[in-house]
Amino acid sequence: xxxxxxxxxxxxxxxxxxxxxxxxxxxxxxxxxxxxxxxxxxxxxxxxxxxxxxxxxxxxxxxxxxxxxxxxxxxxxxxxxxxxxxxxxxxxxxxxxxxxxxxxxxxxxxxxxxxxxxxxxxxxxxxxxxxxxxxxxxxxxxxxxxxxxxxxxxxxxxxxxxxxxxxxxxxxxxxxxxxxxxxxxxxxxxxxxxxxxxxxxxxxxxxxxxxxxxxxxxxxxxxxxxxxxxxxxxxxxxxxxxxxxxxxxxxxxxxxxxxxxxxxxxxxxxxxxxxxxxxxxxxxxxxxxxxxxxxxxxxxxxxxxxxxxxxxxxxxxxxxxxxxxxxxxxxxxxxxxxxxxxxxxxxxxxxxxxxxxxxxxxxxxxxxxxxxxxxxxxxxxxxxxxxxxxxxxxxxxxxxxxxxxxxxxxxxxxxxxxxxxxxxxxxxxxxxxxxxxxx
Length: 439
Description:
Helix content: 25-40%
Strand content: 15-25%
């Protein structure tokens, strides 16, 4: 693009407003060459007094980034144009300018504690996939991030650039900016700008104006052609979407229901028995969730759901109607903080209503039955949009969610599985039964 183009304009806007930058881009797209190697040199041309920190996870990458920046600053072409800006005591890992500026290199897991304070901090691939499935490693990398964020010249005028391929729900992008897995990200939405460039054109491209520069829906049609991406998907498996499409999806090792969701194309009718399980909405962040369970020929089916952010009273008529439509014989409702509502409102509207008190540790309950979640059958192409939203939420439910994570649909699925274990144990075991001969 020309010098007045969109990228240059956006870039200068971010820098001069001192907003932070989150760059999510596929591997092999020169992000490290541009950000960790060339950008430091460019910064010293603009202002040789700057203090710059570049940190990555692997020490060999940190050293390589510093070597390349040194090569640029010492190159004949650079010196010819800008002069020799290096101080005599400049070293391989601590680059110093003759105007007092410095560029330091560290790793996320480094035990060293720099006493310097910086104007610009660059995080370049500061985590690995293994960090997300090892709680100790995840805490260590997040602690490293926290430590470096304290080493700034001014909390109101420094710039953080985080460049990485997405790894999963609990990665550094979420920890720093997006806050879907973590309860509170480090920065609010008005403090940073997303630059998201998936290998294939999707609705996730940010800023959206950059979508017009994709060629045949590809970010880099030469190095990441359709054939290359097909091959990468074959090799990467479930890591392809975060790595190449920059989607914040959980890796298989991160998710609660590691066996996935059991889908069926059978007909949704002719049940021998039906039941409902409801988790009432407790706070503004929770979801209201009801699950209608059906038993047929020795299998358990999720017939329908109510799943949304609406209030108890807004969903009351839906729940009452579904219990009538599906002729549920027993209807369980979580009663922890809603006993008066159940006694005064629901008891006279729903047949055979059974209040059910649950222990406060939802997560432990959910984990205790996750191994039998596969015995719940969910219908493909169910016409209820809330049903599809429930499936999507379950597929991405993390193994270690934060304390206020929305777990409504997972909680009612747990009620249903507890019920099956007590009343239909043969349904939730791997032992085959001849249903036709069973009393």
